[in-house]
Amino acid sequence: MSNTQGNLNTTAEIGIVEDGGSFPPFDSTTYPSQLLWLVLSFGVFYWVMSKVVLPRIGGILEDRRDRIAGDMAEASRLKQETDEAIASYESALAEARKKATTMAHNARSKVKAETESARAVAEEQLAAKLSESEQSIARITAESLSHVGEIAAETTGELVKALIGGRAPAKAEVAKAVDAALK
């Protein structure tokens, strides 16, 4: 078989017959029926769109608009609550700082007062010990000075005895001479 016969067989199988007529939509004899069906189809589609589809789409859009408005209202409410919570937190924080400052000041004042009183007590004790020490030193000095004359007289007597050789001079004479030299 040739290709031409194969093509003819295929067109015959499909049912296309070439009779030389025009394309049916462009045939002017079929315009009135085409216009009728166009009007009927448009009317049915218009009715379906206006009564079924558009109300559903409108409802969906209305639901979305309501949901968005509700979400915006909720977000606004939550933002206001957040702002109030932040303001409350900042107020509490400022109050806590003020209390902490007051407590630190009071503690500092108390410690300073305690330190001052302890220092005053320590100074009084040191002053008393210093006075007692000065009195003790004065007493020891006076006692030592009173013995200096005796020690000087005794030492002088021994020196004179060593220098002269032999007998030591009288203690009364040596004491008198030492007293005169010390004064």
Structure characteristics:
183 residues, mainly alpha, 3 helices, 0% strand
Task: Describe, in plain words, how this protein is organized in 3D.
The protein is mainly alpha-helical and 183 residues long. 86% of the residues lie in helices and 0% in strands. The chain contains three helices and no strands. Helix 2 crosses helix 3. It is rod-shaped.
- Largest sheet data: none
Poorly predicted runs: none
Proportion of residues in β-strands: under 5%
Alpha-beta classification: mainly alpha
Helix and strand run: HHH
Give the arrangement of secondary structure elements.
Layout: H1 3-14, H2 31-164, H3 171-182
Short structural summary:
The chain is built from 3 helices and no strands.
